[in-house]
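Researcher: Good morning. I'm working through a list of sequences from a screen, and I'd like to move beyond sequence-only analysis. For each chain I'm collecting a predicted structure so we can compare shapes side by side. This is the next one on the list. No need for commentary yet; just the structure.
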Amino acid sequence: MTSDTGSTDVSTSATDRISFAIVGSGWRTEFFLRIARAMPDRFEVCGLVTRSDETGRRIEADWAAPTYRTIDELLAATSPRFVVVSVPRAVAPDAIENVARHGVAVLTETPPGTDVEAMLPLHRLVESGARIQVAEQYHLSPLLNAQLAIARSGRLGAISSARVAQCHDYHGVSILRRALGIGFEDAVITASRFDSPLTVGPGRTGDPTEEVVVTAHEVTARLDFGDQLGVYDFAGEQYFSWIRANRLLIRGDRGEISNTEVRFLHDFRTPMLHTIQRMSAGEGGNLEGQFLRGLIAGDEWVYRNEFLPARLSDDEIAIATCLVRMAEHADGGPDFYSLAEAAQDHYLALMIARAVDTGEAVRTEPQAWAR
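Model: Good morning. Structure tokens for this chain:
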């Protein structure tokens, strides 16, 4: 069994490079720039929109990417296969609509809007033929990719429940839905928040310089889909914490995944146990370089890194996978994380927040994008 990432021949020539543009210049934008710098034979940032002249000069100096002040200027001067929209959610819909109006495919950052009302016009754009996908990368990161592939393989039997403590809001919900194999089914949601002290770890700017204790706000929610149960459990402080680990539990009638342990039945009297292990180069006396080769469980590869030997973090590998799949979508290929999926995940996250705020059970309702 291999995951849906598979083992891909990455001997890409310069003529096959994925040329894309970016709207936005924030922290997330640098992930796309780093990926293009690490693999110039596969990716090219042909232009970037930022409203600030100063920021534009810095990006041109640091990243050698041409910058423009408006989307119209960008698309008049370049011909990207698609445009990455990486701006705050409040202004993302306008930027997405502007790019789509030019007939260019859009890969937008998460979430695609602030609320249901903001996402409905984007849904209508898709109905009118706009090519819009969302850069939800977590399910494409190596370990989660492998875990979800094992759950889909049937080895665990029919999946009945999943508990996700991986990432916040819509990100966590996206993993939960995929772990359960849920589409747009409705749920009854109950949720609560628990506050507790936590010593902080590193942040976006690096390691801590002093001991600081903050209040961690842990949200736990139960999403009852009838014959399947999803449990969301996360505190935002977990992202950079050294002492709060990610957790994933997926259970079926013939087995379960608990983080990196896979337990299942070979037959009704033969239990099996596999451990998911990373296969990395550059460790000990290995001289291949430093990169992830893939993940194995038992005697099978459950994930193969298609970007080796590039030196990328797991998150960057996942984002690079988004870029490859977006290029395929822009060329007429299938969805990989559609606007409808993203809207549903964000809607469920908003309903979790409502359940926390009201202390009452919330029943979700079918939305326009779920038709």
